[in-house]
Structures are given as structure tokens and as C-alpha cells.
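Q: What would this complex look like in 3D?
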Amino acid sequence: MISRTPGAVRHAEPVGGGGDQAADRPRRITAPVTPGDLVFRGVLRAAGLSVFLIMGLIAFFLLLRGLQALHATGWSFFTQEKWLTQSHVFGIAAVLPDGVIIAMVALVIAVPVALTTAVYVSEYAPERIRSALVSLVDLMAAIPSIVYGLWGLFFLQPRIVGFVRWTTMHLGHWIPFLKVRSGDIGASYTSSPFIVGTVVSLMIIPIVTSLSREVFSQAPQGEREGAYALGSTRWGMVRSVVLPFGRGGVVGAVMLGFGRAMGETIAVALIISPKFTVTTHILENGANSISSLIALHFGESDPLSLSALMAAGLVLFGLTLVVNMLAAVVIGRSRSGAATAD
Amino acid sequence: MTDNPGVDTPAQQPVPVGVGYRANAGGPDSDAVETLALPVAAGPSPAARPALRSELREPDAPAQLFGLRTRDVSAWFGDHKVLERVSLTMPAGQVTALIGPSGCGKSTYLRILNRMHEMVRSACLAGAVLLDGEDVYAPGRRPADVRRRIGMVFQRPNPFPGMSIYDNVASGLKLAGIKVRKDQRDHLVESSLVSAGLWTEVRNRLRTPGGALSGGQQQRLCIARSLAVSPDVLLMDEPCSALDPTSTRRVEETIAELRGRLTIVIVTHNMQQAQRVSQSCAFFLATHDTPGRIVEAGDTAQLFGNPVDPRTADYVNGRFG
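A: Here is my prediction, written as C-alpha cells for the whole assembly.
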């Protein structure tokens, strides 16, 4: 609290040379808090810290249960491609990259759709269409992933195989990863990373769309009008103001989408035909991901295999955590640095 | 200055909302058909008019000057009328100051001049804005083309985020889709910055972000950005109200140097500023139940020194507002 001796300083002149010079050190400043504030702060702090606690407990649980398998396999857990429950050979060298590939396919499909939707909703859509679209996109996020999985398996897959055949026939020659080996067998075209990625893309479109839409609509009115006042078209304004302003937020949104795609389980488990070699041809039958590996194997596992699944889960947990934290950093930085004036 | 309403105004009924020009809430790119309830300005027929000038002019080269004139401009936001029958001539090559207390509609009037008004949902207007005798609200006239000829500087400096000083100045060319050679562009950026009085301060750091400049420098950067597309008219909406006195003086010097090279219309709350920078002046006034209208307009020295209307005298002498 500030206390001042009356009359000590009469003029706004430097007081110096006097006898009672106080030490020129930062003084201690206290700000007493009311009891109400104290209680409220305590409750909020407890709620906030409980998130750390829950996350920490999950990581601790996975580590605890996974250690047994990690002990048994050693570093080969990260280099071994095979996963044989019966003979206790465990490794994620194929499952992890496969999961990343599926997530990448999902991003390649989802990001253009999500970004164009976000620009349309925030900049072009008339009010009524805008609110309808916003709630529809939110609804997309509310559909259970098992529904997406069933839709992908029974509706999408039989209908998209023709497109896959066409693509590999025309492009597979020049672009190696679009080739389908043993293409004379019909089943080679199904259950591929591409089809799974397509289904997963539907599940990450909502989050990427709504996060991007939010940063786009925060582009400041002053800069928007500045662009219009220079004789800009609406697209010119979007390009010179809205997109640069939202760049960081979009990168963050895409990374969050990636994290979600990595963790997607049921739809992948339903559609994929599991295999344990690293995928090199995305249109070809067979792939895997850590979450679908866990979903498909935990029922038949003995204690050691279960421990290995926990260890795999821990790796996925760590990876997703890192990606999400990076995303948060990118989003946070864009918020603080994007505004120009003031 | 003002068109004498008794002589110039054709017999008109007050234009109800929705009958006059209805600003399209769809925005500046909308192709919707626009209608004007009022007779279009006397002048050459639309077909005979030249297309909007698209070539660039050297900012420092002598050029033809265009004045701006409005005829019976009224404006509404929804059902609320904010301006009534404002007729004003802003002489070519001069600085015209719009003064008046807050809420008198002078900023709305300014935004009507380059078609920024219609970007507000529910905004509409009646009357005509004539640039060189042509109505800027004429059907088929694109807002973007109008705004390129009638530039605007805002109250808050608004350089583009993440763009360098150079790119900010050159942005108008890009936005308007004007292709120029690199050396031409360099020259244009330099001459625009010189005109805005910013060149000597930033010549060695043209590639640094525009957002890193001080507020006053940002405002002059925005002036340079507007000048780079060589507008005929520059509108300034309280350009100094967010600036410190030194920056204000620099901006006023810039305005003084631009005088005679293009037509400037400036909204200001600062009486001294209006006296310093403008040659002609219009005093707007609104009361709580009447929309804004011009009380008095004319030569700045006359309006401040020997106002006709007692309300003007009260305002310019600081007795209210």
C-alpha cells in the first residue's frame, strides 16, 4: 500500500542532497486480496491444476503398465516392425509411421476443404448461411466416430474403389507411392491408408474449420477497411489482411487436426486391414496405427502383450502431447504478434 | 461553397428509406443492380464518359485536379436518419475541413464520399456524390474503382500486418491489380514516401515491418500507401486524433505539401487544425432529434473570423461541442 508523508514533496522537482536519503532500491509492494477473491481463486486454481493432475496420472499409468514390456524388448520396441502377440515380439517401427501417413492423407484432404470453408464462412457467407454452416460444422464434430467408420466401410469404400483404380492406372506409373502392386486382385484396392485417411479427414475438418474461422474473423476491422479504401476487391482484402493475420492460427489448427487424426481409433480399426510393414503405397490394401493396434489387440492379449500395448499408447500420448503443445505455442504467438498497431 | 438549396435543389419529397439508393449489404463486390431515386447529375451520358482512369500517374507530376461535390446527400442507418440533404462543394486541389461536434454525421458523410458507407449493414443513402461531374453511385460503377480514385486515411493507423514498409506502400498496386515494372515500383514507393514526409526516416529500412514504426510514422505510411495509387481525392478521418503533437505537426505539414496536388477532405475535432490546414470549411450540426446537416460552409478564414450563423460562432469559439 502506498503511504505518503504530507508535504514531503512540494514541487515536482528532484529531491536530492537532503540528509534523509532513502535507499534507492525497489520497495516491497503488497496488494491485499479480499476473502471472496481468495476463495474464488482457490477454486479456479484447483480446477486448472486438476488438468495437470489427470494428464500426469494417465502418463504415469501408461508408463507404469508399459515398463514391463519395454524392459523385455529394450530398444527393439522402437525398431521392430512386427507385432506378434503369441511369440512376444513387439515393435512400433511400422505402426507409428503408418499412423503418421494416415494422418497426413487426412490432412491433405481436410486442410483445403476446411480453410476454404473457413474463409467462406467468415468473409463471404450471408448471415443466415453463415450461422447454418457454423452449426453444421459443429454437428460434424458431434457425430460419433463409429458412425464415420461404418459409413466409410459400407458406403464410401465400395464407391471410391473406382476412383482409386483410375488414379493408380493413370498416375501410378509416374508417382511411385500411388502404385498398387498386385493390382489384378480386387481386394488390393480396399482398406488402404487412402480410404482410411479420407474418413479420418471428415473427423478433423470441424476442428480445423472452426479454429481457422475464429482467427479469420478476428482480423481487425481497421485493416480490412484500409484495404477496401485502396480499391481492393474482397478477395484482395482477404489475401492481404485476413490470411496473413490468421496464418499462425491456421498452422496451429492444422497441427491440432494432426494430433486428432493420430489418435483416431474406431474408424481406422474398422476399415483397415492390419499389416506390420511400413506403408509405401498409400492406395494399396493394408496399414496400421497405434490406436487401432490397441483396439484390435487388447482383447487377445496376455499380461506382457497388454503391457506392450500400454507402451505403444504411451508413445502415441507423448507424440500427440508434443504436437498439441507446439500448436498451442504457434497459436499463442500468432495472437500476440499479428496485431500491428498499439 | 454550398449549393444554395433554394436555387439548386429540384423539387423533392424527402426520400424515404429504401426508396433512395439502398446500399447493398452484400458488400463491395456485389453485382446487384443499384438504383438512384434522384435525377443523375447533369453531364455527359454514361456511354460518353471515359472509363475510370486506370493508368498510374507520378505522384509528384502535375496532374489534372478533380473537385468533389455532393447534392442533397441524406443517410440512414436502419430507420435512423443521420444526415439530411447535405450539399457541399469541395474545391479541386484545396483542403476542405469538416468540423462539428461528435455525432453530427461528418464521419458518415466522409465515408459516403468513397462508398465506405455501404459496407455497414443496414446503411443507405439518398442524393448524389459527384467526382468530376460523375456520380460515384451511378449504376455499374464499381466501389473498388471509386475508392481507388478517392483514397482514405483513417483515425487509427492501419498498416497491413506482416507487410514491410515497402510492401505496404506498394500494396495498393497489388490490390488494384496494377502491374508495374520493378524499377517503376521502386520509384513510386520512394516518391509516395517522400510526398508523405516519411522517406528520410525509413529509406534505410524499407524491408522492416510497417507495424514496427511509431504511431505517427504509421499514419504517414498509410498516407503514402494511399498516394501510391495516385488518387484524385484523399479523405482523412481525424487522422491526428491518435497522434502526439509532434506527429500531428508532421502530418499537417504533409497535408500542406499535398495541397494543390490533389483534393483533400479532412474531418477534425481540432479547431486550430482546421484553421491551419484547410482553405474551406463546413460546419455540421445535429441535435438529438434532427439528423446532421450543414449549418454553414465557406472560406475557412471567413467561417472562423466572421461566421454568419450564431451556432457556428459558438462552436468555433469553443462555447459548446
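A: To summarize the key features: Confidence is low (pLDDT under 50) at residues 1-55 of chain B. Chain B is about 30% helix and 20% strand.
Q: Very helpful, thank you.
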